[in-house]
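<context>
A single protein, sequence plus fold
<entry> Chain with its tokenised backbone below
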Amino acid sequence: MAIGIGLALHASEGVANTVERASRRLLHAFNLPAGSDINRVLTQIASLERSVRKLNNALDDTLDLYRTATLEPVTRTETRDSDEPAVAIEQRNPAALR
């Protein structure tokens, strides 16, 4: 019985792979993304998010060092333009520069 179940599972995997290849070719023929394309893009987005998180942490650490070294007030704010994602910038207190 175990041999029969193993053969059935192997056959169903083969059918699934054949269907996936055929659907991928069909979608690409119409210039549409397949599931593997979507997974690749999602992986790249996750990698970019990790990189941005690391950069934000490095910026926070740098601003903390700058604040303690100069005793000049520096604030970090989030801005959002209509077409651009939120980006972190540093603003200096104009009164502290005089």
The chain has two domains: 1-32, 43-98. Helices lie at 2-29, 35-70. The two ends are 86 Å apart (CA to CA).
